[in-house]
Structure formats: structure tokens, C-alpha cells
């Protein structure tokens, strides 16, 4: 078990998720995501580097084996906690995500395995993010970059309150079919279940989709 503070654990988790979705984690991404100053980030990264959790080369951050191990444990706990809260407890996916941030730090490994069993060994969290070890790296197209055609929603990239609220009202839920009718500069016109809607770029960038064959 690590003795890292929760903020430091959160950085490690975020670096892992950036690698997972973008293939690379950069300092600028962390500054933006956590809304902190470059000075704060650099202090945190110094600490993580001295503890052997990350390696830094110029602006790029990479998790070491130890860093990856810790990230995987936290992220698995986070995503399984979300499944427990939505599927078994019946919470909506916004509160589930918020509470999972706290729960991810508390479950012992054997309890997590129990939760995994109770929720039926899922491949992803309710937002479509893979449970570590169960699915390959997430690869898909962002809705903002999609050509007209028929797709399936794969995942909601950032699990922010406004994003989850907006995609839910459009019916853009992982697993759901979405038809892209028009696309211009990242803004797309879509149809989900007979309902047409325009999705602004900022939101379309948060929805990952997969082509259906
Ligand atoms: Zn979450
Ligand atoms: Zn999630």
C-alpha cells in the first residue's frame, strides 16, 4: 500500500488516464485538468519523481512500473466502485463518479474482488472507461471528428458533471447507437433513437465512438 497523499494519488491516476486516452501525458494537460499553477504541479511532480512513481523527459511524463501499479489499483477501485453504485445501489452516473473518488482509496484488494464479482466482472465503468486488465487501450473516434455514418457510443472521455448531464439528455450513453448526419468544424448533427440534435464542439470532443460494421 502506498502512503501517498490523496492529491498525489490523483495526479498518478490522471497521468495513467491521459496515457490511456491520448497515448501521452503532458504537464500542460495536468495544469489544465486540475486548474493549478505550474509551480504547484512542478512541486508535485518533483515529489512523485523522487519517490520513483514517474519519469520525466522534457514536457512528457511517464509512469514507472511502481507508478503504473498504483494507478491501476486506484483506477480499478474507482471504476468498480462506480459500477457498484450505479448497478447495485441505483445511483445516477454523476453521483457515482463523485463518490467513487472517495471510495477508490478505501477498499482492500479482497473486497474489491468481491465487488467485481457482485457487479458481474464488467469490462468498463458506467461511462465506458475500461476496467484495467480487462480491455485493451481505448481506441475510437471523437464525435467531433466523425464523418457522417452510423456509430456506437464507446465512452465519455471526461466524467465532469456538465458533460455527463449534457450527453445523457442527448441519449449519448455508452453502447447506444448514434447516427452522425452532418459534421462541420467539430460541431455535429446527430440522431439518437429518432431524435435529432446539434452537438457543440466542446461536447462532441468528449464523446468517443466506434464505427459499426
Ligand atoms: Zn469516474
Ligand atoms: Zn466512470
From TrEMBL:
GO molecular function annotation: DNA binding; DNA-binding transcription factor activity; protein dimerization activity; transition metal ion binding
Tree of life domain: Archaea
Pfam family for this entry, one: Fe_dep_repress
Gene3D superfamilies per UniProt: Iron dependent repressor, metal binding and dimerisation domain, Winged helix-like DNA-binding domain superfamily/Winged helix DNA-binding domain
InterPro entries given in the database record: DtxR_MntR_Metal-Reg (IPR050536), Fe-transptr_FeoA-like (IPR007167), Fe_dep_repressor (IPR001367), Fe_dep_repressor_sf (IPR036421), HTH_DTXR (IPR022687), Iron_dep_repressor (IPR022689), Transcriptional_repressor_C (IPR008988), WH-like_DNA-bd_sf (IPR036388)
Domain spans labelled HTH dtxR-type: 1-64
UniProt keyword list: DNA-binding, Transcription, Transcription regulation
UniProt-annotated location(s): Cytoplasm
Keyword Transcription regulation annotated: yes
GO cellular component entries: cytoplasm
Subunit structure: Homodimer.
Similarity comment: Belongs to the DtxR/MntR family.
Protein name in the entry: DtxR family transcriptional regulator
Source organism of this protein record: Metallosphaera hakonensis JCM 8857 = DSM 7519
Amino acid at each position: 500500500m502506498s502512503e501517498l497523499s490523496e492529491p498525489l494519488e490523483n495526479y498518478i491516476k490522471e497521468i495513467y488516464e491521459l496515457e490511456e486516452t491520448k497515448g501521452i501525458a503532458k504537464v500542460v494537460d495536468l495544469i489544465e485538468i486540475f486548474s493549478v499553477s505550474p509551480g504547484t504541479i512542478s512541486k508535485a511532480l518533483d515529489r512523485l519523481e523522487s519517490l520513483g512513481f514517474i519519469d520525466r523527459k522534457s514536457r512528457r511524463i511517464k509512469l514507472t512500473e511502481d507508478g503504473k501499479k498504483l494507478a491501476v489499483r486506484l483506477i480499478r477501485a474507482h471504476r468498480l466502485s462506480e459500477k457498484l453504485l450505479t448497478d447495485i445501489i441505483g445511483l445516477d452516473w454523476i453521483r457515482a463518479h463523485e463518490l467513487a473518488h472517495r471510495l477508490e482509496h478505501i477498499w482492500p484488494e479482497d473486497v474489491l474482488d468481491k465487488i467485481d464479482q457482485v457487479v458481474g466482472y464488467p469490462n468498463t465503468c458506467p461511462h465506458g472507461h475500461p476496467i484495467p486488465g480487462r480491455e485493451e487501450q481505448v481506441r475510437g473516434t471523437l464525435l467531433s471528428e466523425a464523418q457522417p455514418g452510423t456509430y456506437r457510443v464507446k465512452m465519455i472521455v471526461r466524467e465532469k458533471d456538465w458533460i455527463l448531464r449534457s450527453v445523457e439528455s442527448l441519449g449519448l450513453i455508452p453502447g447506444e447507437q448514434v447516427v452522425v448526419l452532418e459534421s462541420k468544424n467539430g460541431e455535429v448533427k446527430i440522431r439518437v433513437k429518432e431524435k435529432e440534435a446539434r452537438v457543440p464542439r466542446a461536447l462532441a470532443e468528449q464523446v468517443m465512438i466506434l464505427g459499426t460494421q
